[in-house]
Amino acid sequence: MVKHxxxxxxxxxxxxxxxxxxxxGIKEGLEGLKGKVPGIVDIKVNINGLESSNAxxxxxxxxxxxxxxxxxxxxxxxxAVADSKVRPYTKIRSCLDYEA
Length: 100
Fold this sequence. Notes:
Strand order of the largest sheet: 2-3-1-4
CATH topology: Alpha-Beta Plaits
Largest sheet: 4 strands, antiparallel
Organism: Butyrivibrio proteoclasticus (strain ATCC 51982 / DSM 14932 / B316)
Domain Stress-response A/B barrel: 2-98
Protein name: Stress responsive alpha-beta barrel domain-containing protein
Oligomer: single chain
Helix content: 25-40%
Number of domains: 1
Number of helices: 3
Protein backbone atom coordinates (compact mmCIF):
# COMPACT_ATOMS: atom_id res chain seq x y z
CA MET A 1 0.00 0.00 0.00
CA VAL A 2 1.08 3.58 -0.69
CA LYS A 3 -0.13 6.60 1.24
CA HIS A 4 -0.50 9.93 -0.59
CA UNK A 5 -1.05 12.87 1.77
CA UNK A 6 -1.38 16.48 0.66
CA UNK A 7 -1.85 19.66 2.67
CA UNK A 8 -3.12 22.74 0.88
CA UNK A 9 -3.35 26.37 1.86
CA UNK A 10 -5.92 28.41 -0.02
CA UNK A 11 -5.14 31.79 -1.54
CA UNK A 12 -5.55 34.77 0.81
CA UNK A 13 -7.91 36.63 -1.53
CA UNK A 14 -10.89 34.44 -0.63
CA UNK A 15 -13.33 35.24 2.17
CA UNK A 16 -14.14 32.69 4.87
CA UNK A 17 -17.41 31.90 3.09
CA UNK A 18 -15.68 31.46 -0.27
CA UNK A 19 -13.06 29.21 1.35
CA UNK A 20 -15.77 27.01 2.85
CA UNK A 21 -17.37 26.59 -0.59
CA UNK A 22 -14.00 25.91 -2.25
CA UNK A 23 -13.06 23.30 0.37
CA UNK A 24 -16.39 21.52 -0.06
CA GLY A 25 -15.88 21.45 -3.83
CA ILE A 26 -12.39 20.00 -3.46
CA LYS A 27 -13.68 17.37 -1.02
CA GLU A 28 -16.54 16.30 -3.30
CA GLY A 29 -14.33 16.30 -6.40
CA LEU A 30 -11.48 14.25 -4.98
CA GLU A 31 -13.56 11.82 -2.92
CA GLY A 32 -15.69 11.26 -6.02
CA LEU A 33 -12.69 9.73 -7.77
CA LYS A 34 -12.99 6.47 -5.81
CA GLY A 35 -14.34 3.88 -8.20
CA LYS A 36 -13.38 6.00 -11.22
CA VAL A 37 -9.58 5.83 -10.92
CA PRO A 38 -8.03 2.36 -10.73
CA GLY A 39 -5.90 1.57 -7.68
CA ILE A 40 -7.53 3.90 -5.15
CA VAL A 41 -8.08 1.97 -1.92
CA ASP A 42 -9.34 4.94 0.11
CA ILE A 43 -9.54 8.70 -0.41
CA LYS A 44 -10.69 11.28 2.11
CA VAL A 45 -10.42 15.05 2.29
CA ASN A 46 -10.50 16.72 5.71
CA ILE A 47 -11.85 20.28 5.52
CA ASN A 48 -12.47 20.85 9.23
CA GLY A 49 -9.06 21.60 10.68
CA LEU A 50 -8.71 23.10 14.12
CA GLU A 51 -7.74 26.77 14.51
CA SER A 52 -4.21 25.68 15.44
CA SER A 53 -3.70 24.37 11.87
CA ASN A 54 -1.55 26.21 9.36
CA ALA A 55 -3.14 24.47 6.34
CA UNK A 56 -6.73 24.71 5.13
CA UNK A 57 -7.39 21.13 4.06
CA UNK A 58 -5.80 17.70 3.76
CA UNK A 59 -6.05 14.84 1.30
CA UNK A 60 -5.44 11.45 2.93
CA UNK A 61 -5.44 8.72 0.30
CA UNK A 62 -4.27 5.14 -0.03
CA UNK A 63 -3.30 3.38 -3.25
CA UNK A 64 -2.63 -0.25 -4.07
CA UNK A 65 0.93 0.47 -5.28
CA UNK A 66 3.40 3.10 -6.45
CA UNK A 67 2.26 2.33 -10.00
CA UNK A 68 -1.37 3.02 -9.02
CA UNK A 69 -0.34 6.39 -7.56
CA UNK A 70 1.52 7.25 -10.76
CA UNK A 71 -1.56 6.32 -12.78
CA UNK A 72 -3.76 8.48 -10.55
CA UNK A 73 -1.53 11.50 -11.06
CA UNK A 74 -2.16 11.50 -14.82
CA UNK A 75 -5.66 9.99 -14.93
CA UNK A 76 -8.02 12.34 -16.85
CA UNK A 77 -10.68 12.31 -14.09
CA UNK A 78 -8.07 13.34 -11.48
CA UNK A 79 -6.50 15.97 -13.75
CA ALA A 80 -9.95 17.47 -14.39
CA VAL A 81 -10.65 17.81 -10.65
CA ALA A 82 -7.19 19.20 -9.94
CA ASP A 83 -7.40 21.74 -12.76
CA SER A 84 -10.94 22.93 -11.97
CA LYS A 85 -11.36 22.59 -8.20
CA VAL A 86 -7.88 22.63 -6.65
CA ARG A 87 -5.13 24.47 -8.54
CA PRO A 88 -7.02 27.73 -9.19
CA TYR A 89 -7.64 28.24 -5.47
CA THR A 90 -4.50 27.02 -3.69
CA LYS A 91 -1.27 28.85 -3.01
CA ILE A 92 0.71 26.18 -1.12
CA ARG A 93 0.79 22.41 -1.67
CA SER A 94 2.83 20.04 0.47
CA CYS A 95 2.91 16.33 -0.37
CA LEU A 96 4.17 13.24 1.41
CA ASP A 97 4.02 9.84 -0.29
CA TYR A 98 5.16 6.74 1.61
CA GLU A 99 4.79 2.99 1.67
CA ALA A 100 2.50 1.79 4.43
